[in-house]
Amino acid sequence: MRTKKVLVAMAGALALPLVWTGVAWGHGYTTAPPSRAYNCSIGAVGDCGDIQYEPQSTEGPKGFPEAGPADGQICSAGISRFAQLDDMRGGTWPTSQLTSGGTYTFKWTLTAAHATTSFRYFVTKDGWDPTAPLTRAQLDLTPFLTVPYNGQQPPTSVAHTGTLPSGKSGRHMIVGVWDIADTGNAFYQCADVTF
């Protein structure tokens, strides 16, 4: 009887990797422009909580903007332990200088790549309030740049060159969304910029 229990336990242990092969282990964050998560991880911003140790972990439901994280929780991907990313801090997050209508190369660091549908980039509307929690009403809900991957797995360093929205000035936020192909999740990165 004891031998049978041992064999059952061993079979279960051997089968476990097969069960887990369908789980998304992809994780990533944007370094250009630097996201809030990345700024926390390099110490450019303090009082960040757990995100400083895992900037790649802002994974939430995909389907943005129709679905995904709730308004006011977009930057944290709806994960309460990363809520510091949703705190607008009175509009004091550090910004990157961008040129409206110019060409820009967005960069992601993927700590674990995964089959990908696309990378998409959204920007806040003119007149948005940088001191209020980020909502869909504050964003242009049509991405200004979409990079399709059609289920392919990207490399661990990803760069997408595209044209920035024209006519923008002042402080804005860019939301990068990495849509995973074979799970119900996406990764969300918020970057504060000045045009």
TrEMBL record:
Residue span, Chitin-binding type-4 domain: 27-193
Family matches, as Pfam families: LPMO_10
Keywords for the protein's UniProt record, in alphabetical order: Signal
Gene3D superfamilies, alphabetized: chitin-binding protein cbp21
CDD domains from the UniProt entry: LPMO_AA10 (cd21177)
Highest taxon of the lineage: Bacteria
InterPro entries tied to this protein: Cellulose/chitin-bd_N (IPR004302), GlcNAc_Chitin_IntDeg (IPR051024), Ig_E-set (IPR014756)
Identification of the protein by name: Chitin-binding protein
Organism whose genome encodes this protein: Amycolatopsis saalfeldensis
